[in-house]
Amino acid sequence: MRKTKHMTLDDLSRRLALGEVSELNIIIKADVDGSIEALSGSLQKISNDEVAVNIIHTGAGAISESDVLLASASDAIIIGFQVRPTQQARKLAETEEIDIRLFSVIYDAVDEVRDA
């Protein structure tokens, strides 16, 4: 049985052009709640007619295996702000081919999602 390829920021524009996708599901993990709120609000503002940005889960703390499993089940990317994945989460993300992006500046995260 062939495993389906999960969404990545790198292939978002190609999948949009082919009409394969109309939304981008995102999981946000950050160091503190204030960062989560700022990043979530900024990302939701970039939704447009072409693609809807859906924040499906947020949380403070390191990126965990459960975050990777949720991303796999919901075809989401994970954005980490001032956090890193645990070693187990990193291995699982590689196995499941989940796109984890790590940032230390909110505007860098927003720009990268917008530019995709």
Describe the 3D structure.
This protein has 116 residues and is an alpha/beta fold. It has a single domain, classed as Rossmann fold (3-Layer(aba) Sandwich), CATH 3.40.50.10050. The protein is 41% helix and 23% strand. The protein contains five helices and four strands, in the order αβαβαβαβα. A four-stranded parallel beta sheet has the order 2-1-3-4, with helices on both faces. β1, α2 and β2 (52-60) form a beta-alpha-beta unit. α2 (33-44) packs parallel to α5 (106-115) and α3 (65-74) runs parallel beside α4. The protein is globular, with a radius of gyration of 13 Å. 24% of the residues are buried.
What's the topology here?
Layout: H1 12-17, E1 23-30, H2 33-44, E2 52-60, H3 65-74, E3 76-81, H4 87-96, E4 100-103, H5 106-115
Parallel strand pairs: 1-2, 1-3, 3-4
